[in-house]
Amino acid sequence: MGTFQIEGGHQLQGKIQPQGAKNEALQILCAVLLTSEEVIINNIPDIIDVNKLISLLENLGVKIQKLGKGSYSFKSNELNLDYLQSEQFKKDGSGLRGSIMIVGPLLARFGKGYIPKPGGDKIGRRRLDTHFEGFINLGASFRYNKEERFYGVEAPNGLKGKYMLLEEASVTGTANIVMAAVMAEGTTTIYNAACEPYLQQLCKMLNSMGAKISGVGSNLLVIEGVTELGGCEHTILPDMIEIGSWIGLAAMTKSEITITNVNWEMLGLIPTTFKKLGITIERRGDDIFIPAHNNGYEVQSFIDGSIMNISDAPWPGFTPDLLSIILVVATQARGSVLIHQKMFESRLFFVDKLIDMGAKIILCDPHRATVIGHDFHSTLKATTMTSPDIRAGISLLIAALSAKGTSTIHNIEQIDRGYEDIEARLKSIGAKIERVD
Ligand SMILES: CC(=O)N[C@H]1[C@@H](OP(=O)(O)OP(=O)(O)OC[C@H]2O[C@@H](n3ccc(=O)[nH]c3=O)[C@H](O)[C@@H]2O)O[C@H](CO)[C@@H](O)[C@@H]1O
Ligand SMILES: C=C(OP(=O)(O)O)C(=O)O
């Protein structure tokens, strides 16, 4: 279990470039299975989850060549499908959430796809029904081995396009169904599709490989099946969750930080939502400039004067992956805010640690927390904590950087799952952080 030691209470300053987006990378990497031709991907983040998926693809027989920092070439012309029956696959496939998205491409290209129960954050129930109902709609048969927690879909005679209305706009579920449908016979229509930038990028990549997907960016995707896909080159967008994390870090440590090349057009409600906490966000070209908030930041209220409420929703709503960061930043705001995590039921429990540090938070129920900001009249106190999940982990790290004294965070593999070389990047803007084991 890795550990960070953080000496908090220092203002930071400088520029930080966001890494490539973790959740987009996981989709894009799975899509390389759809063609026997070469696919080149740029801006791949060097993080645990992505590296685990790359090694799974390698074990599956994908030929992988590193072309430069973040750039790789993939060729899936001689896959070893026997690997899918191996003990090694059970281990590799259950190591991350994103592995679930190899099923759609394998089903499309080889008529069969398998996956052990995937990993990922333990943040509440994470059903896979949307994925498998989608495959069944396309004509696949489904089986689940409860004892081994192993899923399988098969369609030896190929898939057939169909209209489907998804029960929920699942991000990985939509990606999986889209990848299965691109080579199905006829037209597939997916209504209530997720439409995060991750999905938009995936569809853009698939279209450049020869797929025919329209409605990209909306919740109604129409896919006309083609017989095969070719190679392409794709560049991953900057990670919007990292961008939100650095906005929160800047505000809470009263630091002047420029986040460079953010691809502003794809940030949706992220800047607006941080502004609701009173944080100044200046757009400078494609950079975000956050001035030092030496006089703090004040929570806005609604037009009728009622208490501010920040909640998540499927895109283009506010992403659930930034609510933990919003919550920690609210602990030093002027004013109060209700944080409502609608999607996941176990993602707010980390507030116990913030309360230990002196934050004023009432956990109303597993989904809602009221935060009464300190307005920096009282700083958080350093403590020892364990990171329960990736976004709680980065939130605790931000809390530790703003706290007085030296904090210790254990289980930092959770943070490394999604943040590349974090201590070096934070040190470069003045943070006092050490990886101690
Ligand atoms: C690898 C990856 O890309 N992970 C992301 C992906 O996970 P993932 O694709 O696993 O998440 P889903 O979109 O399937 O669903 C997330 C949760 O929200 C619930 N739900 C979803 C849609 C909906 O309309 N209503 C609803 O209640 C689901 O029941 C589930 O509990 O999307 C999540 C939701 O943005 C993000 O937190 C994860 O970072
Ligand atoms: C929940 C997340 O990741 P995963 O779906 O990989 O667990 C996340 O990135 O915030």
UniProtKB/TrEMBL annotation:
Gene Ontology CC: cytoplasm
Top-level taxon of the source organism: Bacteria
Reactions catalysed, as given in the entry: phosphoenolpyruvate + UDP-N-acetyl-alpha-D-glucosamine = UDP-N-acetyl-3-O-(1-carboxyvinyl)-alpha-D-glucosamine + phosphate
One GO BP annotation of this record: cell wall organization
Annotated Enolpyruvate transferase domain residues: 7-426
GO molecular function terms attached to this record: UDP-N-acetylglucosamine 1-carboxyvinyltransferase activity
CDD domains per the UniProt record, alphabetical: UdpNAET
Main location: cytoplasm
Residues binding phosphoenolpyruvate: 22-23
Subcellular compartments: Cytoplasm
Record-listed UDP-N-acetyl-alpha-D-glucosamine binding positions: 97, 321, 343
Keywords, comma-separated and alphabetical: Cell cycle, Cell division, Cell shape, Cell wall biogenesis/degradation, Cytoplasm, Peptidoglycan synthesis, Transferase
Active site residues according to the UniProt entry: 121
Family: Belongs to the EPSP synthase family. MurA subfamily.
Functional description taken from the UniProt entry: Cell wall formation. Adds enolpyruvyl to UDP-N-acetylglucosamine.
PANTHER family per UniProt: UDP-N-ACETYLGLUCOSAMINE 1-CARBOXYVINYLTRANSFERASE
Protein name listed in UniProt: UDP-N-acetylglucosamine 1-carboxyvinyltransferase
